[in-house]
Amino acid sequence: MQGWEHLPTDRAALIVGYHGRPIAYDLCMLTVSMYERLGYLPHGIIHQAALELPVMGRMNQSLGFVAGDGPSLGEAVARGEHILVQPGGTREGCRSARHRYEVNWGGRMGYLRLALQYGLPIVPVVSRGVDDGYIGLNDGYSLGKKLNAPGGLPVWFGVGPLGLWPLSPPFPVRITQFFGAPIEMDPGIDPSDRAALRPIHDRVTGTIQDLLDEANR
């Protein structure tokens, strides 16, 4: 892990990461490292309903997940605990091998509204090695849309050393994580003004792409 010093220790931050394929294994590793260093798991964001399920809800809470539409997020920020998001989601994580280490968040700028709402600096994070575990065969996000897959799930096919994902483990790769310097936002920006958010979005995605390029150079 490189750049750990960029992560604030006296306040909460919004850690914004690139989504490797097909699952963000590196960010799972990051949560363990943060638990060892900070004593708590960073809080990934899920829907409030997922926290209210009889069994899964308790498990999600124990893993540190918070709801973007519930009070748990504000409570975590008030305790000074970091929030973790991957705006690219399956759009980034479930692509073909033609697109590796390429930021693709589209017009998703909800993470900026979240940062403005709670006054959080944005800390970018990327990892080297995360797109090398499987060879992607198709654009799973687009295929899932075409097939009307339930819950907006991707329909992705990837190949590992023993066959198709998820039946095959990934190819053995070394994963190294890189933090970038925090990006502060002007608190006077209107969160509903997409035109005002666009330059910041471009700056954040550009920073993520630069970090990826440097990490893989």
List keywords for this structure.
single chain, 217 residues, alpha/beta, six-stranded mixed beta sheet, three-stranded antiparallel beta sheet, 8 helices, 14% strand, globular
Q: What is the H/E string?
A: EHEHHEHEHHEEHEEEH
The low-pLDDT segments are none
- Helices and strands: which structural class? alpha/beta
* Helix fraction bin: 25-40%
Percentage of residues in DSSP E strands: 5-15%
User: How many helices in DSSP terms?
Assistant: 8
Oligomer: single chain
Q: Which radius of gyration do the C-alpha atoms yield?
A: 17 Å
Q: Biggest sheet, strands in spatial order?
A: 3-2-4-1-5-9
Characterize the overall form: globular
Mean pLDDT over the full residue set: 88
Characterize the biggest β-sheet. 6 strands, mixed
Strand tally, please? Answer: 9
Cα separation of the termini: 16 Å
